[in-house]
UniProtKB/TrEMBL annotation:
One of its GO terms (biological process) is microtubule-based movement. GO terms for molecular function: ATP binding; microtubule binding; microtubule motor activity. SMART domains: KISc (SM00129). CDD domains: KISc_KIF3. InterPro entries: Kinesin-like_fam, Kinesin_motor_CS, Kinesin_motor_dom, Kinesin_motor_dom_sf, P-loop_NTPase. This is Kinesin-like protein. It holds the Pfam family Kinesin. SUPFAM superfamilies: P-loop containing nucleoside triphosphate hydrolases. The keyword Coiled coil applies. Keywords: ATP-binding, Coiled coil, Cytoplasm, Cytoskeleton, Microtubule, Motor protein, Nucleotide-binding. Belongs to the TRAFAC class myosin-kinesin ATPase superfamily. Kinesin family. It comes from Oryzias melastigma. Residues 680-691 have a biased composition (Polar residues). ATP binds at G98, Q99, T100, G101, T102, G103, K104, T105.
Length: 751
């Protein structure tokens, strides 16, 4: 595809296939279904269910990496140029896309401890810091790293120590710098070790937050962000800052989540898990298509964060990962189609020159300010010294205010030393001065000390700020020797060569097909027939391929449409259910009130309630809290307060307990058999009044009234109740009833 814009370039897409794992090897003799032509950058996919005559599917990419590929090869060939661009001030993105278990994390991170198996991210760390250490000393660098994760459409800051409890982070858009996450933790890193530590902390946070790490990582997107700011004096003598931002993205597994029997809340959740991924697919389709004006970046958090990387001003590399197992043919084909589409996306990379929000600029300003302060102090103390005793400070006198950093650095130390000496001398002078009062002496000494402390603090701050800046060719010790450096350069050259060769091969292939006819001249009719037959065959097979492709596409469309319809049906059913509840159980005027308060927030894709009280008149409308409410949740009358303090009236309490006991007791058909129970006392009364007998049975079979009242007194004021029982006992005793029985009842109901 020809680029529309001169400065535009397409997204680089490379494909990597992992080796068969042990389980797949043992499960059958079929072998892999993925073949690769490394020279041409082609993937040939065999359908294990199709007849051998059916043409195989071929896809061409910028590069392909088979099961034997080394991490290093992928890095040197496909990633190194991108990181170089980032160091030059471009935005860059690498994302790994593919089914779970196909090697996304292996490619991005790899095995950290084995130098052969280190993935893109550790290699990029090496690359960045080695580059800084080898660059010229007039360059200053500031490297920052952030680590975040998108899980169920929530952005979590993995470097925030209490991220697990914190609310998900928001996204904001700035016309100058694009979409960003406010309040995201970012750590200034001065060395490979430090940035690796940052990565470690984030990885641990990811693992700790998840109950099942495997499931979690296959459903969440991890984004590691590195910002490299570089300042360098330009031809105009002023320092210019370039900012490169690198996104290293390990996406969620691309396989379709089965959503059988899911509805309601669970459906929503299932839709959210892969919302970002399907939105990414839609964005890629819209961009690759080129015709549709609307690109749905806003549909998900991931696509908004990657807005610059897809169709924006970044340089982007996509690594699509495949598994070779026949069982995953469908997923593999989907991944390849996806990757094939992404090839057509055009970006317009541009260097970020002197952005307003460069942190490096702020650092430089702050350092300059501190330096000026130090200089000023030094100058002032010199003045004072000269005034006081006219002593000559030797080196100080011919020094001038210089702006050169290194000079200042040594000067600062010197100044500190001198200052210390001066203070010591002054201190001695003060202690020796017989004429000063002890009090005054003390005060002067205190002043001196304070001054010294201030100077020290200032210097410490200055040093801390400056230590964060990396100066080219200085801060990091480069351990590699010349020979090794040469080796690296050679390796890069080779990688570059391979890449170019492949490009030429691919171009030749395309040209071959187009110009074959033009070059051919036929000496005889027979030859012409042969040649044309050959060509016809070739074209015919191509036609078959395309027909198959169309059929596949159709099938896919039908499939996804059915899926959508099913989802729609489920949602409609859900909606009907909600409507039913609203129509039947919520009064229309209440419904209207609620509806009038609702507003839609397109940013959050959510309905929100407007506040009941308009924000500006909040204070004028809010009534003062009544004095009677101090310490209570709501105003309460004097009478009620006294009642609470007193507890419930004991008279009724006693009755409540009696009720409870009678009510709670299960109907007992043969009370006479049980001599230990309180029944013997009740029997006579039962005999006397048969009506009461009926009452008891009735109330025990339908306990609501008595039960409720007694329950309240027992559950709210259990302690008061127990004291209440004693009074019950007493009174029962007075009445001559059985004490034992009542007692037992009382305790049982207090349980
Ligand atoms: P994903 O992140 O896509 O779910 P992983 O990166 O976790 O997949 O890889 C799954 C397994 O396959 C891991 O055990 C990993 O070591 C192995 N693996 C993946 N790619 C390769 C490769 N290119 N070479 C060797 N092993 C690989
Ligand atoms: Mg993974």
């Amino acid at each position: 595809i020809m680029s529309k814009n001169k400065s535009s370039e397409s997204v680089k897409v490379v494909v990597r296939c992992r080796p068969l794992n042990r389980k797949e090897e043992s499960s059958g003799p079929v072998g892999g279904i993925v073949q690769m032509d490394l020279r041409l950058g082609q993937v040939i996919l065999r359908n294990p269910r199709a007849s051998p005559s059916e043409p195989q599917k071929t896809f061409t990419f910028d590069a392909v990496y088979d099961a034997n590929s080394k991490q290093r090869d992928l890095y040197d060939e496909s990633v190194r140029p991108l990181i170089d661009s980032v160091l030059a001030g471009f935005n860059g993105t690498i994302f790994a896309y593919g089914q779970t278990g196909t090697g996304k994390t292996y490619t991005m991170q790899g095995a950290w401890l084995d130098p052969e198996k280190r993935g893109v991210i550790p290699n990029a760390f090496d690359h960045i810091f080695t580059h800084i250490s080898r660059s010229q000393s007039d360059k200053q660098y500031l490297v920052r790293a952030s680590y975040l994760e998108i899980y169920r459409e929530e952005i979590r800051d993995l470097l925030d120590p209490n991220h697990s409890t914190a609310k998900g982070l928001d996204l904001r858009e700035n016309p100058e710098t694009g979409v960003y996450v406010p309040d995201l933790t970012s750590c200034v890193c001065k060395s490979i070790k430090e940035i690796e530590e940052v990565m470690n902390v984030g990885n641990q946070a990811r693992a700790v937050g998840a109950t099942d790490m495997n499931e979690h990582s296959s459903r969440s997107h991890a984004l590691f962000l590195i910002t490299v700011e570089c300042s360098q004096p330009g031809p105009d003598g002023r320092k210019h800052i370039r900012v490169g931002r690198l996104n290293l993205v390990d996406l969620a597994g691309s396989e379709r989540q089965a959503k059988t029997g899911v509805h309601g809340e669970r459906l929503k959740e299932a839709a959210k898990i892969n919302l970002s991924l399907s939105a990414l697919g839609n964005v890629i389709s819209a961009l690759a298509d080129g015709r549709s004006g609307h690109v749905p970046y806003r549909d998900s958090k991931l696509t908004r964060l990657l807005q610059d990387s897809l169709g924006g001003n970044a340089k982007t590399v996509m690594v699509a990962t495949l598994g070779p197992a026949p069982a995953h043919y469908d997923e593999t084909l989907t991944t390849l189609r996806y990757a094939n589409r992404a090839k057509n996306i055009q970006n317009q990379p541009k260097v970020n020159e002197d952005p307003k929000d460069a942190l490096l600029r702020e650092f430089q300003k702050e350092i300059a300010r501190l330096k000026a302060q130090l200089n000023h102090r030094r100058w002032r103390s010199k003045q004072k010294k000269e005034q006081v005793d006219g002593e000559d400070w030797g080196r100080d006198s011919d020094e001038e205010m210089e702006d050169e950093e290194e000079v200042v650095e040594t000067e600062t130390e010197e100044y500190l030393k001198l200052e210390e000496q001066r203070l010591e001398r002054e201190e001695e002078a003060i202690t020796e001065d017989q004429f000063l009062l002890a009090e005054e002496k003390q005060k002067l000494l205190g002043d001196l000390r304070k001054e010294q402390e201030a100077a020290e603090q200032l210097t410490a701050k200055y040093k801390a700020m400056e230590s964060k800046l990396l100066v080219g060719g200085k801060n990091i010790i480069d351990h590699t020797n010349e020979q090794q450096k040469m080796l690296e350069v050679k390796r890069q050259e080779i990688a570059e060569q391979t890449r170019k060769e492949r490009e030429i091969q691919q171009q030749m292939l395309v040209q071959d097909e187009e110009t074959l006819e033009l070059r051919e001249t036929f000496t005889s009719l027979q030859q012409e027939v042969e040649a044309k037959t050959k060509k016809l065959k070739k074209l015919y097979s191509k036609l078959q391929c395309i027909k198959a492709e169309i059929k596949d596409m159709n099938d896919e469309h039908v499939g996804s449409r059915q899926e959508l319809e099913q989802t729609q049906n489920e949602l409609t059913r859900e909606l009907k259910f909600k409507y039913l509840i609203i129509e039947n159980f919520i009064p229309p005027e209440e419904k209207n009130k609620i509806m009038n308060r609702l507003t839609f927030d397109p940013e959050e894709d959510q309905w929100n309630f407007q506040p009941l009280v308009p924000a500006q008149s909040k204070f004028s409308q809010m009534k003062k809290r009544p004095a009677s409410a101090v310490g209570y949740k709501r105003p309460i009358s004097q009478f009620a307060r006294v009642a609470i303090a007193m507890g419930a009236h004991s008279r009724y309490r006693a009755e409540n307990i009696m009720f409870l006991e009678l009510d709670m007791c299960p109907p007992n058909p043969s009370p006479l058999d049980c001599s230990v129970e309180a029944d013997p006392n009740q029997t006579p009364s039962l005999e006397n009044s048969p009506t009461r007998n009926r009452d008891i049975h009735k109330s025990s079979s339908c306990p609501p009234r008595g039960d409720r009242t007694s329950f309240r007194s027992v559950s709210i004021l259990p302690r008061v109740c127990r004291t209440g029982f004693t009074s019950v006992e007493l009174r029962l005793h007075e009445r001559g009833e059985d004490l034992l029985g009542a007692k037992r009842r009382g305790f049982r109901s207090a349980d």
